[in-house]
Amino acid sequence: MEQISKNIFLVKNILTDEQREELLETSKPLLLDLGDDFPGKQTPAILHTVPKLKSIFDCMLQHMEHVMNYKFDIKNAWVNWTNGKDEDLNWHIHLCHYSMVYYMSSFNCGTLFRDKFIETELNSLIIFPGSMEHTAPTSPSRIDRYTLAMELNFNYEILFKGLES
User: Fold this and answer.
1) Smallest Cα–Cα separation from 29: which of 52, 13, 57, 12?
2) Are strands 41-42 and 134-135 parallel, antiparallel or unpaired?
3) What's the average model confidence in pLDDT over 26-49?
4) pTM over 0.70, yes/no
5) N or C, which end of the chain is more exposed by having fewer CB within 10 Å?
């Protein structure tokens, strides 16, 4: 784990190659063109509810909870596909406590924030506050880029367990 800044964390070597490939191959047929407000293609935002992928999401949550020292609930999870086109630049935020991007393909691993580009490698993830504006980077090459995105909220149930009488 590497703390990039006060609120941005990078975690490497998240899944086994088999898990990463299963996530990618399960997601590819689910990719949809959702219109102009959604660059590239993306799956429905309910991937975390797919029973076949449960162990993968459990593994990711364990890594993130260990790094952040918080327990999270997944609000939404989806796979994105882009290939670096300029028109796919889409600055946005997420309405959640934290966002996460996991890099499933070896090209263009990183996320562009307003003040910097955070580069990483295949099979790693970046966790950052949902309120941080970001986008997938553009590139002159037209190589497929697959990422998994998650919106995470704190699991308050754990915080309040000790208050029960």
Assistant:
1) 52
2) unpaired
3) 93
4) yes
5) C
